[in-house]
Amino acid sequence: MNITTGKRALIEVLRQEGVEYVFGIPGATEIHFMDALEEAPEIKYILGLQEVVCAGMAEGYARATGRPAFLNLHTASGLAAASPLLYNAKLGGVPLVVTVGQNDTRLLQLDPHLTGDIVGIGRPHAKWATELVHAEDIPVVIQRAFKMALQPPTGPVVVSLPQNVLQQEFDFTHAPRTEVRARLRPDTTAVAKAVEILVAAERPLLLVESGVARSGALDEVVRFAELIGARVHQAWMADVNFPVAHPQYLGDLDPTDRSAEPVLKEADVLIGVGCSLFSAGFYDSQTPSVAHAKIIHIDDDPWEIGKNLRTDCGIQGDIKTVLTELNTALQVALAAGLPAGGPDARERVRQRTAELAEEKTQALAELQERWTAQRNRIPIAPSRLMTEVASATTPDTVIVDDCWSSSGILREILAPSQAGRYYRSRKGGSIGWGLPGALGVKLGMPRKQVVAVLGDGSAAWSIQGLWTAARYRIPVTFVITNNATYGQVKLVRRQVLGDYPLEEKHEGMELDRPIMEFSLLAKALGVEAERVQAPHELGPVLRRATSSGEPRLVEIIVGR
Question: What pLDDT shows up at residue 354?
């Protein structure tokens, strides 16, 4: 027999699951867990000063490693405080195992302090939420949590840990961890139907999102786009789901916005890969129609396929596996000159590809002309800042993007094109992820240079994360674009209410009285910092920060 306590059994299961870090803030309901954790020095505890910081670090680590991150929160209040970023993680398919300290079950009917409906609070943000009843539950439930977090559709799992359960003794038996091979193959009939539609396509349009990155399918989706000569867009770029520098990639496209109508009108086949097709942010009675086009949707989550659009060919399965098999079938079909496409199908693909490359070249030339005109502006133009960030980094640098209103410029100029080299908040929309997310990314990729580019509004949400960076000497360079406004809110206001000068001030959108000095905040939290207001100072300051080998912050006063 191997008699042990629940808390020590929990630590042993974490060892079996290969947990490197515990992200959290301990309170009274974590005393027993922390006591057992001190006996496992190989599992490092990373302390945050606020739950948003802890949840952000966990998400960054999970996305960087592809493994579930372990997040430990303090009772109902801690779980509630982490909810904004757990909401993002749920919608973004980020695998997290979240344990939450619960009071002794013998007290719960007395409405004690330090308690609450942990399962109820966690359920909206989790694939599964449960509360342990017996110490014997620990091996089964915690192993199940890791398994479920990583099974498609991936996401957070929440487990409530009552204190008396952690103290109970039981006969603990080591059990090998469960491994699930989740790369499910597609239905062969669906693949054949997709091929038939694609070889006949005249103007195919490919929309990609984070499902590509989650399944590691970047090479496969590029090959797919090249085989069919598709125009490629994404509604929301949160990972490298297609190389930005690729000649067929033409940037952001919200298919529910009226501005997308010219592109959608031309398309005769719309293919969605790893995305939620036509998820509108705002109601519009004149949303563009794609009723004229055939729809192909590929995803590992059956909920997404056919959810918002009538779909001619829905293919459920692991995205990388589906694309691999679809690409093979397309190559055979194109080589054979099937009747649907005719003998000139490959020539049509070649012509489309050349047209798209020319369109992209022209668009980039126009942008470059605009950026050149802005180069010496004061306050500093975001385009000048992103150009200098590109010069101070390498293609191997990992960029964490939380600079919402300047994000489009960052992506155009840095053109992230390698898998795992760019991270932005996925679905959900809660700001504040970038600063702690960059710490998690760095812990997950310790040999990579990590640079986080943050908006001032977003940085203010999670500025306490700088203390964690200083405490553990996590060498991330934080670049904060300070324009003393919620710029993204103003951009949305313009979209909803119509055009207006973004310099106008509006209620609830200004951060100018007083203007925050992030460089001073950073120093108070233990991180060296510099503030830049002149364009010519940018290059030297950024190079000093990125080459320091220490956490550093550079605050840039930018124009709106």
Answer: 97
- pTM of the model as a whole: 0.96
DSSP 3-state of 304: coil
Helix/strand/coil (H, E, C) string of 224-284? Answer: HHHHHCCEEEECCCCCCCCCCCCCCEEEECCCCCHHHHHHHHHCCEEEEECCCCCCCCCCC
- What integer is the mean pLDDT of 502-511? 81
Domain ranges (residues) in the chain:
3-171, 188-359, 374-557
Mean of per-residue pLDDT scores for the chain? 95
Please calculate the CA angle 321-324-328 and round it to the nearest 5 degrees.
145
Q: Which residues are paired to 160 by β-bridges? A: 100, 131
More confident residue, 93 or 488: 93
Asked if CATH classification 3.40.50.970 holds for the domain at 374-557, the reply, yes or no, is yes
Half-sphere exposure of 100 (CA within 13 A, CB side): 33
Q: Which of 231-235, 345-349, 459-463, 552-556 has the weakest average pLDDT?
A: 345-349
Distances (CA, A) of 266 to 40, 227, 352, 375: 60, 19, 13, 36
Reading the block at residue 225, the tokens are 């786009």
* pLDDT for 280: 84
Provide, rounded to the nearest whole percent, the portion of the chain with pLDDT above 70: 99
Contact 23, 71 (CB under 8 A): yes
> Which CATH code is given to the segment(s) 3-171?
3.40.50.970
Distance (Å, rounded) from C-alpha 275 to C-alpha 209?
5
Contacts of 236 (CB under 8 A, 6+ apart): 209, 252, 426, 427
Kindly state the DSSP code that residue 187 receives in the 8-state scheme: P
Domains 3-171 and 374-557 share a fold: yes
Q: What is the mean pLDDT of residues 169-180?
A: 87
Q: Give the β-pairing of 96-102 and 552-557.
A: unpaired
324 φ/ψ angles, rounded to the nearest 5 degrees: -60, -50
Residues 46, 526: Cα–Cα separation, whole Å: 16
Provide the angle, in degrees to the nearest 10, between the axes of the packed helices 538-546 and 382-392.
Answer: 40
Q: What is the pLDDT of residues 299-338, one digit of tens each?
A: 999 999 999 999 999 999 999 999 999 999 999 999 887 6
CATH 3.40.50.300 fits 188-359, yes or no: no
Q: Is the model's pLDDT at 540 over the cut of 80?
A: yes
CA distance 399 to 548: 17
H/E element, 220: helix 218-228
